[in-house]
Amino acid sequence: MQDVIDRDGFRVNIGIVLIGPGGRLFLGRRARGRGGWQFPQGGVGRGETLEESLFRELREEIGLGAEDVLVLGQTRNWVRYRLPARYVRHDLRPLCLGQKQRWFLLRLRSSAAAFRFDATTQPEFDHWRWVDYWEPVREVVYFKRAVYRQVLREFGPMVFPDGLPTEMPGGTAHGAPTATAEGTA
Question: CA-to-CA distance for 117 and 26, rounded, in angstroms?
């Protein structure tokens, strides 16, 4: 797949916030020693719609299909972040300075859905867990934290119609459930 990079140097991308049992969120640990935890995300291919990209990334990164999820919404606008200078690959053209993302909010249809990380030869994740709503803001690499906070604030009313859990210092939520489920695929 050829990445689409806009005229401002931002790679066109989709992000996925997946809600599971008890309103908890899927978080995957990046594979191949890259470390860190994040939501599934990936580039939009040339000629691909956002929805096509969403379901391709869902299958490639965590092994789920459209039948496994319900799409609840998407961000109103593109959300952007710039890569820190040390991550910009100046030898590649076109030059990618960051990502512009359209985020989708999905709900898992069945708690029995099985995550799989072997749909590609280079899996994105090697481990997963369900986390409290604000936990991803603390867990993701530092330069994506503002994006995660913005996206979770926008999706919050769809997930918690009676009001968002309070974000605590470090990204955790006060009053959110604390049970944990996790696994490898």
Answer: 14
Q: How many CB atoms lie within 10 A of CB 73?
A: 15
Q: Is the pLDDT of residue 103 over 90?
A: yes
pLDDT at 112: 64
CB-based contact 130:62 (threshold 8 Å):
no
pLDDT tens string 32-78: 876 799 999 999 999 999 999 999 999 999 999 999 999 999 999 99
Helix (H) or strand (E) holding 182: strand 182-183
Structure tokens at 139: 């867990």
What residue has token string 């309103």?
A: 23
Residue written as token pair 């993701």:
140
Q: How many residues does the chain have?
A: 185
DSSP 37-80: EE--EEEPBTT--HHHHHHHHHHHHH---GGGEEEEEE-SS-EE
pLDDT at 89: 85
120-147 pLDDT, tens digit per residue, is 888 899 999 999 999 999 999 999 999 9
Beta pairing class for 173-174 and 166-167: antiparallel
Residue found under tokens 């997930």: 159
pTM of the predicted model, to two decimals? Answer: 0.88
List the domains of the chain with CATH numbers.
10-183 (3.90.79.10)
CA atoms within 13 A on the CB side of 1: 18
